[in-house]
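Q: Structure tokens for this one, please.
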Amino acid sequence: MKKAFRPAFAVTIPVLCGYLFIGFAFGVMLRDAGFAPPWAFLSSLTIYAGSGQYLLVSLLAANASLVTVAVMTLLLNCRHIFYGLSFLETFHQMGRKKWYMIFSLTDETYSLLCSLNTPEGIDPNAMRFWIALLDHSYWIFGSVIGAVIGGVLPFDSTGIDFAMTSLFTVIFVEQWMSARCHIPAFLGLGAAAISLAILGPDNFILPAMIAICIMLVALRGRLAKEVAE
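A: Here is the predicted structure, written as tokens:
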């Protein structure tokens, strides 16, 4: 575990930079909604869903019911179901750590685990665990700092929630540059664009994810060949 810390930290540096800012943005939004810094810590520790926590601020401010919160969170973060399917065997091999790995599988952590290149002599599972734990700690730290500073130095937070979109864009560009095969990226962009055009911004995510999974399964043979070449 100790040997795996340094390479895990190195690959999580981009997430560190992103999570500090978007976590900070969440903390500021939560403070603006009237919640003290301990709530930022507890929500990031136990919920840990960037877009879900952003949504939570709006729901709390609107005094939404628990049923509304549960349904909206499920609809927003149901894409994580698809993430977990690709790591069933991997997480099962990690013993009791699998429960934390399932909980901590955010978009950014999933991206890092998918492109993980373990150095020689390093336990891959130990490195995966450190990546998940480090990413989680970055988010907690950023959200608490945002909640604290947001209360001490109030400022206009209009547009601050765009930080999440910016991080997704950076991760996509990084994966595009490092990947040999760009077919999955084109499939994802195409499915998302068509679903967005037909269903609108509030309903396009789940159908797009289903379409992407179907296409990737149908083309898995060709994709494996492309990567091998």
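A few notes: The mean pLDDT is 82. The chain is about 75% helix and 0% strand.
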